[in-house]
Q: What sequence folds into this?
């Protein structure tokens, strides 16, 4: 009789860690999950630190695979497009896609996290140890030291250790500090703050639901995503320093004036805006790049721990869930952990780099371009070209959000060519009526290979 | 007194291995180089297997750093552009750049290889052991087994082993077979054969020198690069199977007809064409992708061993030389080999992926697009835009060949946007006179960030 192998240690029981634990457990692995925070199912949710999540096709595909999508249905609020609130008050809905089913779904991180934990623990019997904080890793001895709820040290052998401990990953830091991997952290000059837009006293929503609301102000922006109770979770993105900035808006009067001047249509619907501002921290925004994401057969970084991105494409969680499916497939395909990690890294790294770049670019799009008439003509032309040539032209946003069969890497590559085409084809146009659509179609046919052809060249790698 | 560390074992004494050995030796490392073939300086050169090399700015920068460029001057033949030989006989020189110094340089691989070896051995005292063939690697014991010229096995400790053993790397194969890294090899449907165009009997060249000659035939092509003795080294790229192909052209009569029909202007200048065809092997063309390029502190893949590319951008050797500079910089920056390898991989992998993609795309450009009037208008517009906006628009070919300060990764990214712009701006133009240049300039200014701005966002990684 052979001895059972030691359990796989998974650090972090957020959505990524919980989903991965479910997948590994389903494959028969013995997994123990360690989470620094208390069980969120027994404690009131931490507020003020989290942007609502936008679940799109990539995330949905992952949740479907573990049979979770049905349980989420009632909690998801579909968003059909961006509802833009320019300074001049002329609001407009910019649809995300061309088809009715091309929507994304708003959900609070807390709701999704609790559901995944419920399923992991309740249905799959995953062993999750809350309030176990990673203290240090002894790479030579091959164990991690954690602190239990009584602050007693516990040695956990790393055979292997899977790190789903998020953008601020302590595991990644230990790997970087000991020069086992290379890590680059690129902070944005902007931070964010969560704000609330409660439902009206009669229970109705303060804004049209079924949309992601954006108040683009060039250098900064406010967004709001719907919740299932009629409220919205709003997020202000603003420079940390300069003017205006989180630093310059230092007293209640300055904050009040800032809201009244920049967001007059929504400020009255945010009764707690000054209190929220003062009580809640300024969140960090940045991109984390690492290479590689694993060390030997000991440890692998998954999700934000490996490749945190800025939130402006709404793909962070979707990308993390794709990671989970990929690592699960590599566990099935290879017999040893180092091979699994190498294969996982080779598959996912180019795609993580691509979504990181696209997420940064989307910030400019959301806070400035959406109110630029040139952007609107380009966007209209992109949708028209998709209608005419769906096998050749899909707007980049749609490839990322609605086409999980197109890897991020390919969406980025085709997206750049498309951006050049759209800019030049609409150079002198003030509306779609000014564009010679037949000529545009011919240019696309001459310039862009069919998507299937490009797919066959990237999916191998 | 501390014991001297064991020598670094470097496998492969081609141009990459020789250059890297020089750099490491200059840093004070003790390096021993093992090469399977006999010393090329004492043996007649192997012919029939090598395309001439095109040395461009990236390679030149590396050779300058070791003071080698001066010694090469007399051997380099500058090429100012592509000299295109269409079927209709209307030949034309398409300049590579817009400035007189934007040339690339033809050199035979053998000449460059011998020179680098001469310097490595003669000036730097590098210990090169020829006719030492890598037989196997015992990863657990931590040594490589080589065979000396008498076929006796020799154990070489790998602390570390640096593999510069080329596209068919045995070290890479061992890493892949033992699932230490992931390797993807993507063969092209085309192979190649080297052919000769000797100097005329009066010693003059059979073709205009100072150009890379191309006979684009859609599905296949012939190219010729000048040598310093008035001869040209020609290469035929052709499908392996199908019609016409290396398989279908099976007898002397079929081969003769193929040359007479497809290349009537040059066939008479290739008196050995039938003999060359029969005597010389069909070379392999393909792309090799690996992730990662190293294993622990034991081994690293450098150059073609890590990332062989197809030869159609003429960047293979240039990219390999950039690798050598990067690894040398990482050796200086970090104290242990695993950190050095991780940093080297993180720096170079995205750039290697980019040049691999661009090299594949250049094949279509060389064998088909160069005779397409649309390509010629786009190319003329690209050069015109560079003249007007050199800080914003540099043709992709020029970024790759003449701008070593722009990483391949950025050249690829900007190149795709530019491709879209050029295609749309020239959609209805049959010559540059039909293009509204001021409008094109405005589109570029609105769409493309200054290069310096993009550079600041990529060089960190």
A:
């Amino acid at each position: 009789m052979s001895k059972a192998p030691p359990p796989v240690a998974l650090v972090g029981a957020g959505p990524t860690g919980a989903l991965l634990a479910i997948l590994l457990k389903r494959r028969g692995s013995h997994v123990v999950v360690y989470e620094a925070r208390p069980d969120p199912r027994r404690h009131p949710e931490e507020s003020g630190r989290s942007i609502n999540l936008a679940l799109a096709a990539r995330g949905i595909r992952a949740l479907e695979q573990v049979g979770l999508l049905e349980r989420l249905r009632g909690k998801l609020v579909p968003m059909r497009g961006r509802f833009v609130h320019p300074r001049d008050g002329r609001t407009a809905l910019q649809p995300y896609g061309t088809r009715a089913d091309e929507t994304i779904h708003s959900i609070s991180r807390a709701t999704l996290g609790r559901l995944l934990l419920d399923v992991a623990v309740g249905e799959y019997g995953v062993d999750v140890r809350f309030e176990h904080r990673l203290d240090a890793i002894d790479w030579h001895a091959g164990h991690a030291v954690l602190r239990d709820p009584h602050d007693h040290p516990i040695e956990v052998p790393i055979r292997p250790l899977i790190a789903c401990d998020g953008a601020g990953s302590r595991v990644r830091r230990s790997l970087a500090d000991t020069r086992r991997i290379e890590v680059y952290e690129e902070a944005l000059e902007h931070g964010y703050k969560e704000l609330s837009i409660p439902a009206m006293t009669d229970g109705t929503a303060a804004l049209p639901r079924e949309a992601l609301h954006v108040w683009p102000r060039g250098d900064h922006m406010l967004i709001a995503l719907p919740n299932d109770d009629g409220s919205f979770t709003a997020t202000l993105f603003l420079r940390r320093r300069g003017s205006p900035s989180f630093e310059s808006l230092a007293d209640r009067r300055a904050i009040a004036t800032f809201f009244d001047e920049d967001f007059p249509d929504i400020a009255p619907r945010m009764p707690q805006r000054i209190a929220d501002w003062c009580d809640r921290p300024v969140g960090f925004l940045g991109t984390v790049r690492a290479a590689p994401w694993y060390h030997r057969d000991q440890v692998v970084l998954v999700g934000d721990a490996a490749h945190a991105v800025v939130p402006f494409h709404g793909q962070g969680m979707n990308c993390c869930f794709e990671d989970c499916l990929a690592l699960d497939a590599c566990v099935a395909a290879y017999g040893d952990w180092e091979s699994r990690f190498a294969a996982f890294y080779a598959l996912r790294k180019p795609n993580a780099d691509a979504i990181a770049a696209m997420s940064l670019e989307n910030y400019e799009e959301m806070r400035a371009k959406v109110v630029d008439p040139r952007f609107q003509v380009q966007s209209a032309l992109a949708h028209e070209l998709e209608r005419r040539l769906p096998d050749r032209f899909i707007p980049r946003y749609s490839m990322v959000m609605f086409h999980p069969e197109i890897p991020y890497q390919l969406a980025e590559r085709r997206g750049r060519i498309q951006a050049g085409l759209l800019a030049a084809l609409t150079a002198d146009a003030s509306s779609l009526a000014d564009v010679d659509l037949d000529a545009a179609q011919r240019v696309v046919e001459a310039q862009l290979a069919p998507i299937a052809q490009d797919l066959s060249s990237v999916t191998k790698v």
Q: What stands out?
A: Chain B touches chain A through 45 residues (CB under 8 Å). Chain B has 15 helices and 20 strands. The CA atoms of residues 371 and 431 of chain B lie 14 Å apart.
